[in-house]
Amino acid sequence: MDQNLSDAGAERAVLSALFQYGIEAYVEVSDIIDSETFGSTNNQVLYTCVEKVIEGNQKVDIPSILSAASQLGHSDRVESKQELQYIKSLFEFPVSKENIVSFALQIKKYEFARRIKKLTTKIHKDMDDVTGGESIDEIVSMLEEPVMDFLREDDGGERPRKIGEEASEYLEFLQENRCDIIGVPTGFGRYDQAIGGGLRRKCVDLIAARPKVGKSVFADNVAINAASGGVPVLVLDTEMSKEDHLNRILANLSGVPINEVATGQFAEDDDKNQRVHEAVSKIEEIPYSYVSVAGKPFEQILNIIKRWIIQEVKLDENGKTNECLVIYDYLKLMSSGSITNNIQEYQALGFQITNLHNLAVKYDFPCLSFVQLNRDGITKESTDAVSGSDRLIWLCTSFSIFKSKSPEELAEDGPGAGNRKLVPIVSRHGAGLDDGNYINMRMHGEIAKLEELRTRNEFRTQPVGDTGLIDDKELVNVNESIENGTEEDQTAPWE
């Protein structure tokens, strides 16, 4: 340990916070430091031990640390009397969880300095070996090459490689792991096809909508569809309560109106009572996780996602994140005028989408997020309909608009074509839809259920019996409910 290029107090504070606060502290610093950040070899060992305990979803205590040390082959380093006393002191050292990031950054600076010192020492040694027979370019390269390697490593360690490298192995993997859809299915087949095969890993797909149109119902329907297929789903909500979501999900799964669920009136009808209890049983079985993030700093929201992936989703035997889906409802936007007058809000929007995208890439998960349309979105169906949209479009994988149909569209499309439309605008992986075409959707407001119908062009060109991805019986049921006057376009219960 280089005493001049380390901070023993800061290292102790970081380890103490990890030992005392576990996963809560780990998600704060895991993107900043690793074992090499510590100047002390023993502290490096302790960090690897606590990391193994946390990622194994265990409680951090002395027995778990000793067990991790044994599994990692470090028992001889941690079981001495002196080291055990040090470990015990870490659990008692007074440190605030709020200060762990500043201590982590402190020791990170020293790690950087040690690496530079090591680099310059090597360069100095190489210069001592100069014989005079070298050219000027060769001598300069003794400085340039190690410095460039250092900078490239610090930028993530990625080096350009030939695109064909390992292509055969990749092809073999695809042949052995065939699938019908690349990403996580949303339950809306036409939408999945338009954006290129569902919600893909390392990607953020965006859906924009005006207030009270039903973006939260859209989010819940995707969550239910994915979780019912066994995919762990995390819904992060910025506005509603858990009870509101639970009422919607129970209504969605049981077919009992939201108001009857929320007021308990379902219990007066034996059939509805049974259906609601069956819905509860299903909810208890599916891997649907929910958290309200209203008022929380965005950095804390990102940590919630990291914690969920580390503790709940976990990695497979190859170190890859298991299949999962994160739904974020929603990114906050403002009008173009307020962006001009208040650049800080616009910068905050850029921070959100940038960091959400980077997190999806680093932890290898798909993310579906929602944004609000500005007033232009009432008539416009382009990327301009979202205020400050440039950064959103740069970083999202697909961008779609979800909106209520205009009276003209309702009259032109007919009652069987639903009351909402989904318009894929931008898609990096999919073909999208032709200009003027859109996916017809029907919002069953009172039970918070969203149904995908045929596209606008399909309704115009295909026979009634040829419904493509939607089952004929479902379309008949929708038409019957409209004809009987039972299908209402209610707003308040589901947004």
Protein architecture, described:
With 495 residues, the chain is α/β, with parallel strands linked by helices. The chain has two domains: 1-156, DNAb Helicase, Chain A, CATH 1.10.860.10; 189-483, 3-Layer(aba) Sandwich (Rossmann fold), CATH 3.40.50. The protein has 21 helices and nine strands. Helix 1 runs parallel beside helix 3, helix 7 packs antiparallel against helix 8 and helix 12 (242-254) packs across helix 14. The longest helix has 29 residues, at 100-128. It starts with 7 loop residues before the first helix and ends in a 12-residue tail after the last helix. 36% of the residues are buried.
Entry summary:
With 495 residues, the protein is α/β, with parallel strands linked by helices.
The main sheet comes to: 9 strands, mixed
Count of alpha/pi helices: 21
CATH topology of the largest domain: Rossmann fold
pLDDT averaged residue by residue: 85
Strand portion: 5-15%
Distance from N terminus to C terminus (CA atoms, Å) equals 58 Å
* Strand-pairing-aware structural class: alpha/beta
Instruction: Give the low-pLDDT segments.
Output: 333-344, 466-495
Shape: globular
CATH class descriptor of the largest domain: Alpha Beta
Secondary-structure element series? HHHHHHHHHHEHEHHHEHEHHEHEHEEEHH
Helix content: 40-55%
Radius of gyration of CA atoms, rounded to a whole number: 28 Å
Instruction: Give the domain tally.
Output: 2
Topology, element by element:
Elements: H1 8-21, H2 23-29, H3 41-55, H4 62-72, H5 75-78, H6 81-92, H7 100-128, H8 136-154, H9 167-176, H10 189-194, E1 204-209, H11 215-228, E2 233-237, H12 242-254, H13 258-263, H14 270-285, E3 288-292, H15 298-313, E4 325-331, H16 336-341, H17 343-363, E5 367-372, H18 390-395, E6 398-404, H19 407-413, E7 420-427, E8 439-444, E9 449-455, H20 456-461, H21 472-483
Parallel strand pairs: 1-5, 1-6, 2-3, 2-4, 4-5
Antiparallel strand pairs: 6-7, 7-8, 8-9
